[in-house]
Amino acid sequence: MNEVLSVRGLTIVFPMGHRTIRAVDNVSFSIAKGESIALVGESGSGKSTIAFALFNNVPQPGIIESGEIRYFQGGNFLEMGQASQRQVFWEKVSMVFQAAQNTLNPLLRIRRQVEDIAQAHHVNKKVAIDKARELLSTMYLDPTRVLDAYPHELSGGMKQRVSIALALLLDPEIIVLDEPTTALDVISQASVLKILNEIRRQRNISLIFITHDISVISQVVDRVLVMYAGSVVESGLVQKIVRDPSHPYAKGLIGSIPPLVGDLSDVHGLRGNPVNLLSLSGGCPFADRCPDVMTRCRTDRPLMRQLSTGNAVACHLYDAEGEEVRT
Ligand code: ATP
Ligand code: SF4
Fold this sequence. Notes:
The protein is 30% helix and 24% strand.
């Protein structure tokens, strides 16, 4: 596998007075060139904190306690100097933030925002504008109109497509997209995802989606990592996870998606609320909400196991199956 990113044993904590929240707990994953993966989970499961760690920018007072992040099979990104980190991150890896359309500067025309990116990365401004024209056309936008517009003159869906075009300006090999379509209506969502899929295929870039809504991204990702309380609880090919999830939390997440047509009585939401990370004990973090909870779940943390179905799952229901996955 031509691996472009490898994350191993990533643990991120937030000190809160005398106590510490483990927002990300021993997370490992990798992504190959041209692959598209998603980190999926409820609010507070640690997805965005991982996204911030990918460019060593965890919000205060967060601390990366342990782990390694390697891009393009190189050295540990977390131990590089700032200049080397900047070369890797903004030039080979770029990020589209949550509600990215709001990250456009409202006071500057799009043309000026393209030129500012070019200047910051020592790229000729005319070359950058030509590139932006090409990218905006790929996004089904009129380049001249958009370049001359202020952000408020564009619709939400147009602004999101502009944000993605800006993220592609330096020809990245990986794009991290944190909830890229959450603020959009259903039609704009579908159009942005279709464009992202086309770009991935044309340029063979790798996409990492961060989302709470597996139904929205299931058509555009190859693999899914389901997160709960800072840990990956199940991972596997998207078709397997969507059609035949193994972990009780993944089952609940998939079961809570309403069908487009048909009987809504088949929709079974997850019971309870996301766990309070300050109250975690040594057992399974999902124990209080799990319909299948057993005595040992209260005391022993389940380890990740590779099942014969192809999925890897961290749940005591599968203790007799598969090999333990080592990180
Ligand atoms: P959302 O979809 O709502 O952004 P998420 O899955 O991306 O949720 P994170 O934003 O990564 O989750 O947050 C994970 C946990 O980390 C939170 O529940 C919170 O306990 C902790 N956390 C995140 N940011 C901070 C912060 N700045 N200060 C203190 N704790 C934080
Ligand atoms: Fe449920 Fe136990 Fe599996 Fe946790 S380990 S998901 S509590 S069955």
